[in-house]
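Open question from group meeting: does this chain pack into something compact, or does most of it stay loose? Before anyone orders reagents, we agreed to write out a predicted structure and look at it together. Recording both the input and the output here so the notebook holds the full record.
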Amino acid sequence: MEYTTGLLQGLLNFSMYFGLGVVFLLAFKAIYIRVTPHDEWSLIKDQQNTAASIALGGAVVGFAIAVSGVVKNSLSVTDFAVWAFVALIAQLVAFAIVRFVFMPKIVSRIEGGEVSAGIVVASVSIAIGCLNAACMTY
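Structure tokens returned:
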């Protein structure tokens, strides 16, 4: 009986963390495409813009990497939610730094379909996600 109870508790924990992780991932995507000055979703769907697709894909993957680190190290669902929010903010700040410090014309370059610009944004996003995941151990 204890074995079954343990399995059910594990399934419940998995469901809570996985479900909340998916919610945070969807929220991140929705916030990210509203915060960036270009509409990645429109560029991807309507114009088949590869640069926007790479940039958005990298941002989502970077955030997912950070959230996976949060899941591994969180002490509770509340702890998970707080640190996932921190990861979300870090990803947005990373884009802002690229946009305002390193490549001020990144937005127009992505809108123009310049793949190298999309790769830069994706690479920075994934790097920040990896750093986030590593730093969220305690």
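Observations to bring back to the group:
Helices lie at 2-35, 40-47, 50-73, 77-102, 106-111, 115-135.
The longest helix spans residues 2-35.
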